[in-house]
Design brief:
It contains two helices and three strands. By secondary structure, it is of the alpha+beta class. The two termini are 22 Å apart. It has helices spanning 6-12, 59-68, and strands at residues 22-28, 32-39, 47-53. The relative contact order is 0.24. The protein has a three-stranded antiparallel sheet, with helices on one face.
Length: 75
């Protein structure tokens, strides 16, 4: 599962998306890989962008997952 339109997700939650106020957080465990959008200063709740079961934190997995959520246009 993943969201690839970050601006729309943030706006649907009633916030304005400003790239300099948000950053990606990647959490990996033995059974899953998760990607969250966190707000600097913790004024807004975290937003889950992706969850992949049975995916390890290796280069190929990260490239695929980050490519799906189109993170390159949010630098």
């Amino acid at each position: 599962m993943f969201y690839n339109d970050i601006c729309s997700v943030v706006e649907a939650l009633g916030h304005e998306y400003k790239p300099d106020q948000w950053y990606l957080f990647i959490d990996s465990s033995k059974v899953s890989l998760k990607v969250f959008l966190l707000h600097n200063g913790n004024r807004f709740p975290s937003i889950s962008l992706a969850h992949a079961a049975n995916m390890k934190e290796i280069y190929e997995s990260m490239k695929l997952l980050l490519g799906k959520i189109k993170c390159d246009k949010f630098k």
